[in-house]
Amino acid sequence: MDEVDLLILGAGPAGMAAAAEAAGAGLVVALLDEQARPGGQIYRDVTAVPPARAAILGPEYRAGRPLAEGLADPRIRHIPGATAWKIDPDRTIAYSVDGKAALIRGRRLLIASGALERPVPIPGWTLPGVMTAGAAQILLKQSGILPRRAVIAGSGPLLYLIAAQMVRAGTPPLALVETQTRGDLLAALPHLPGAIRGWRSMAKGLGWIAELKRAGVPRHRGARDLAVDGAGRAEALALTAGGRRRTIPCETVLLHEGVVPNIQATRLLGLPHRWDQAQRCFVPRHDRWGETPLPGIHVAGDGAGIGGALVAELSGRLVGLCAAAALGRLDPVERDRRAAPLFRTLARERAVRPFLDAAYPPGPQTLSPADGTIVCRCEEVTAGEIRRHARLGCKGPNQAKAFGRAGMGPCQGRFCGLAVTAILAEANGQSPDETGYFRIRPPIKPVTLAEIAAMAPTGPDKDSA
Amino acid sequence: MNDASPFLDLDPGGPRVSVRFDGTDHALPEGANLAAALLAAGVRVFRATPVSGAPRAPFCMMGACYDCLVLIDGVTRQACMTRVTDGLVVERAPGRDLHDG
Amino acid sequence: MDAEYAIIGGGVVGLSLAWGLSKRGHRVLVLDGSDGGFRASRGNFGLVWVQSKGLTEPAYARWSQRSAAAWAGFAAELGEATGRDLALRQEGGYDFHLDEAELEAKVRLFQGLRARLGGDYPFEVLGHNALKREEPKIGPKVAGAILHHQDGHVNPLRLLQALAADVRRMGGRVLTGQVVTDVAGGDGFAMTCADGTRHCAAKVVLAAGLGAMDLGPKLGFAAPIRPQRGQVLITEKLPKLMNRPSGIIRQVDEGGVQIGDSKEEVGFDDSVTLEVAATIAARAVAIYPALARAQLVRSWGALRIMSPDGLPIYQQSPTMPGAYLVTCHSGITLAAAHARFLPAWLDDAADAPDLEVFSERRFALS
Question: What ipTM does the predicted assembly reach?
Answer without folding.
Answer: 0.95
